[in-house]
Design a protein that fits this description.
Elements: H1 23-41, H2 48-64, H3 66-80, H4 86-112, H5 117-142, H6 152-169, H7 174-195, H8 198-290, H9 300-329, E1 337-340, H10 342-359, E2 363-368, E3 375-378, H11 379-395, E4 402-409, E5 415-421, H12 431-434, H13 442-446, H14 455-465, E6 469-475, E7 479-486, H15 513-517
Parallel strand pairs: 2-4
Antiparallel strand pairs: 1-3, 4-5, 5-7, 6-7
Biased composition (Low complexity): 15-31
Domain Histidine kinase: 269-490
Keywords: Kinase, Membrane, Phosphoprotein, Transferase, Transmembrane, Transmembrane helix, Two-component regulatory system
């Protein structure tokens, strides 16, 4: 009988971590989406805000050059009045001035009205139609049959002048520039071609080439203006983002300051509220543990009293550590500096922690340099640093391990303290964690003697207040070493002994010879019974 086919084992591969996009990539993606949306809603393929700005610059350019255009129209009408009858020339001049005035009035109305996408499209169409009418009027006068007596050179010059002025004025609206110049150039080219001579063919080609050149120039000017608007928009957007980020950071700073003040008030109040009953717990548990008023009826009550007292002491130390850390973080921790002996403080702390280390079978070695001068430091702070480092070393060193306490000179002339153990060590990626407030490494979490995670942060901050350095080195299954250094400015050099021929503390008073021979007056009252 055949065995049924075994089902293949399906192994689920771990999903690859998806990296969060950076702020710059998110900003670029949002900008691309915004540009695509704006192009879909725009008639010119650009952002609607840019369309309105281009029309605004077009209207301002037209208004600023209105007198120049009027002068050009009047001068052309007067010039053509020499070859044709004055009435047609005056009529053409009046018609051109009417078109120009309508264009100026439209530009002023556009500048006064609020911008909107629908209004922008309507004004764009209106401006293009006015420019087309403007170009047709110029075409009508340049190809008038009466002007056949005028030389081709003069006509070419007038055509180039009209195309150049119209292209420059309508550069912010390229389609309007084409509408104003194309009828003139095409009509002049056809006029030259219809004569049938080679020279006129060349002039026709030059007219079309000039039209292409000025249209390209207007497009270049439009592109340059558009790039300027884009740069300004990006600058405004960046300024807006910076202002928004600044507002967010200011708000976050205000919240952090308010939270810090609230934390300080809470800690100050809670320390008082906790210390008051805690003192009673410690006092009465000490009385019960010591059996001052008599032995307990049940012997186990003495052990319970000792446990209550030890727990109260631990809670009091924890409260003190939290208060010290809050004062350090708030910048209100004041150092009570005096001349202290680093070696003496380390030796005293070793004596205090020796019994605890011996109960765990841990040997503590001392390596001190002799005749070291005193430090100008806060004795309570230095003692707290040494006790925190030594208690951590004892806590995480297994039974039978060793701890080395070293104190000596640094290469720069300062003094250092080193606490090295043979414990389990700290992973390299967890060193910043254990140095942070309430931070605990994986070994501390697994340990039976868990702390609050305040010993190392408090020690580091206290050393920073002294201007020293705090270095933690650790390797797994090898051990941990903490090196604390004090700057040379805090080392008090020993004073040189006084020489034998040193000057007196007070100079001797110079006494004249007559004063030496002058008898001294007796005191009014003398102590004793003698005269």
């Amino acid at each position: 009988m055949s065995n049924p086919a075994e089902k293949p084992e399906v192994v689920q591969l771990p999903a690859e971590p998806v990296s969060a996009p950076s702020a710059s990539s998110r900003r670029a993606a949002a900008q691309r989406v915004r540009e695509a949306r704006d192009k879909l809603t725009s008639t010119s393929g650009t952002r609607p805000a840019f369309d309105a700005e281009m029309l605004r610059q077009y209207a301002q350019t037209r208004l600023s050059a209105s007198y120049v255009v009027m002068l050009l129209v009047v001068a052309t009408g007067m010039l053509f009045g020499l070859w044709m009858q004055p009435i047609p020339a005056a009529a053409w001049t009046a018609g051109m001035l009417c078109i120009h005035s309508a264009m100026i009035r439209s530009c002023r109305r556009f500048l006064t009205e609020p911008a909107s996408p629908s209004a922008t499209r309507a004004w764009r169409t209106r401006f293009v139609m006015l420019d087309l009418l403007y170009g047709l009027c110029w075409m009508a006068i340049l190809i008038h049959p009466v002007l056949d007596m005028v030389t081709e050179t003069l006509m070419m010059f007038l055509m180039l002048l009209v195309i150049a002025v119209s292209s420059m004025l309508a550069a912010n609206l390229p389609i309007a520039a084409v509408a104003a110049t194309a009828p003139v150039a095409v009509a002049m080219a056809l006029s030259f071609v219809m004569t049938g001579s080679l020279d006129n063919y060349i002039l026709a080609a030059l007219a079309l080439a000039a039209e292409g050149y000025f249209v390209l120039l207007a497009h270049r000017l439009h592109s340059s203006t558009f790039a300027t608007l884009e740069a300004r928009a990006e600058k405004d957007a960046l300024i807006g983002e910076l202002e928004q980020a600044k507002a967010i950071s200011d708000e976050a700073r205000h919240r952090a300051e308010a939270a810090n003040v609230a934390k300080s008030r809470f800690l100050a109040q809670m320390s008082h509220e906790l210390r008051t009953p805690l003192n009673a717990i410690l006092g009465f548990s000490e009385v019960m543990k010591s059996e001052i008023f008599g032995a307990h009826a049940v012997p186990v009550y003495k052990e319970y009293s000792a446990d209550i007292h030890n727990s109260g002491v631990h809670l009091l130390n924890l409260i003190n550590e939290i208060l010290d850390l809050s004062r350090i973080e708030a910048g209100r921790y004041e150092l009570n500096e005096e001349a202290v002996s680093l070696v003496g403080i380390v030796a005293d702390c070793h004596h205090l922690m020796k019994l605890r280390a011996s109960s765990r079978g841990i040997t503590i070695h001392e390596v001190f340099e002799q005749a070291m001068p005193r430090l100008w430091a806060d004795e309570r702070a230095i003692r707290q640093v040494v006790l925190n480092l030594l208690s951590n070393a004892i806590k995480f060193t297994p039974q039978g391990g060793e701890i080395w306490l070293k104190a000596g000179w640094t290469a720069s002339g300062g003094q250092y303290l080193s606490v090295k153990d043979t414990g389990s060590g700290i992973p390299e990626d967890e060193i910043p964690v254990v140095l942070a407030s309430f931070g605990q490494g994986s070994n501390s979490i697994k340990s039976a003697e868990q702390g609050a995670g305040l010993g190392l942060p408090i020690a580091k901050n206290l050393i920073d207040l002294h201007g020293g350095t705090f270095t933690l080195k650790s390797k797994l299954r090898i051990g941990t070493e903490v090196i604390v250094t004090f700057p040379p400015e805090r080392v008090m050099s020993a004073l040189a002994p006084l020489s034998d021929d040193s000057p007196p503390l007070q100079p001797e008073s110079s006494v004249l010879p007559d004063e030496k021979r002058r008898p001294r007056h007796k005191p009014i009252m003398s102590a004793g019974t003698g005269s």
